[in-house]
Amino acid sequence: MNETSLTDLDPAKRAVVFAYHNVGVRCLKVLLAGGVDVALVVTHEDSADENIWFESVISLCRAEGIPYITPADARAPELLRQVSDARPDLMFSFYYRHMLPADLLAVAPAYNMHGSLLPEFRGRAPVNWAVLHGASVTGASLHEMTVKPDAGAIVSQMEVPILPDDTAFEVFGKVTVAAEQALWRVLPSLLAGTAPRLHNDLSKGGYFGGRKPEDGRIDWSRPAQQVYNLHRAVAPPYPGAFTEVGGVRYVIQRARLPGQGNLVALSLPQGLAVLDGAIVGVCGDGRMLTIAALSADGAPVTAAQLQAHLEGARA
What we know:
alpha/beta; 15 strands; 8 helices; 28% helix; 315 residues
C-alpha cells in the first residue's frame, strides 16, 4: 500500500456499487472502511434454483443502511436513471452477474473485480476454469470497465496459490481475500486519481464462457489428472462431477488422486468400481481416483451399494 492513508482522503467520494456474492460483500466493506460514500448498491435477488452458500449483499446493505435495488435487466432505462441520480464519482462492480451497457458505464469511471490474474481466464467462472485447467496460481484483478468484458487496464492485482488438491470452493475463498487486499491496497490512489494503469494484453490468456451442471459429466477415458481436475473444479457446493451407470446418476462428493504409482493392476473397466472394499474411479491412463464420498439422488452411496448396482447393471 502506498504512503497515502485512507483517512487522509476526502471521505465524500460517492460510489454506486454493483455487487453480489462473497466478493461483493468483502469489497463493499473495504469501500466503507475507506470512507467511501456508497450512495446506491445494485445487486441480485437470490434464485430459488441455486445453492446459496455465499454471503448476502442485501443483508450487508440492510445492516449498514445502504439503499439497494435488484433490477432484472442492467439495460433498463430506469436503472440508468437511478444510477445517474445517485451522482457517483466512481462505480464498482464486484461479482455482479450482468454486463453493464455503454450508457451505464458512461455515468462515471467504473472498475470491476475479476477472479483471475488478467489477462488469464477472462469471462465467466474464472476460478472453476483455473482449477479445471490445472493452474497452480490465480488471483484477483481490479480493472477499468469497458464494454468488452475484462478488457480494461489493470489497476491492482493480488496472487494466490492453487494447491494440487484444492477444490474451486477452497480457491474461491483465497480469491475473495485477494480481492479484498487488491482493492484495499489501491483504494487511496484510486480515490486520489493516481492509480496505476497496467496494460491488459488480450493476446495472452483466454476467454471462457459460463459453466452448466451438465459440464460436470465425467469422461472416464481421460487421464486421471484431468478427471481429478474436473472433480476439484465442480466439487460441492458446486453441482459436482457425475457419471451415470444403469440409469443412476452418481455424483462424486470427495475424491483424491494418489501418486504416480497408482496404476490399476487388474483389468478393471473404465469408470466406477469397487476395489478392496473401497470406491474408485478408473481412468483412461490406468490410474484411479479414490472416492471417499459418492452420492445418488442426494443420498450417500456405500461401496456395498455401488457394488450391488454395478453387478446388476452388468447382468
